[in-house]
Amino acid sequence: MTHDCIIPYRVQQHPSTGKILGTLTLVDAKQPGLRTQAVRGSLYLTLRQGTSVLLGVVGLLFMTRIVGPEGYGIYAAAFGIFKYLTLLADGGVKMYLLRAKSDTPIEVFHQAFYWLLMVSLAGAAVATVLFGGLRCSRATTPCSRGRCWCYA
């Protein structure tokens, strides 16, 4: 006897006696199991992270080739300082919001928004005052392979 279609089902049994308790429960055969979903999700995240790293390395090679090793060193130092200052300016607000309970009043989120907005605007204003006046010209800046860069 051959079957054209197999319908997956789950039998409900009593935990201690093993007796069948009622009718059969159909299992949706189209929905993947938890293990399948976990494997697919892990594979997707791994591929996404790998692609991100690969694109970062390619971008790094292009950037180093364009600005040269000295220019990239200045960029890396400035970016490190920038990331440190943004971490300090954040003050843990984002982490607090992530851990906030679902019944947190909306005013807390408004305060966090305005705090981050004001800190960002203040940082942009300070950066503009400190570095906004720099002008580059071929006569005053060192040139590398025909490209000129400003150095503070």
Considering the chains and any ligands shown, give keywords for the structure.
single chain, 152 residues, mainly alpha, two-stranded antiparallel ribbon, 3 helices, 59% helix
Task: Give structural notes.
This protein has helices spanning 34-90, 93-99, 106-131; strands at residues 9-10, 25-26, 143-144, 147-148. The protein is mainly alpha-helical. It has a domain at 91-152. The strands form 2 sheets. It has a two-stranded antiparallel sheet. The protein has a two-stranded antiparallel ribbon with strand order 3-4. The longest helix has 57 residues, at 34-90. It is flat and about 80 Å long.
| Beta-strand share of residues | 5-15%
Strand order of the largest sheet: 1-2
Structural class of the helix and strand makeup?
mainly alpha
Annotation, overall tally of beta strands: 4
Oligomer: single chain
Q: Could you tell me the radius of gyration in angstroms?
A: 29 Å
Sheet bearing the most strands, described?
2 strands, antiparallel
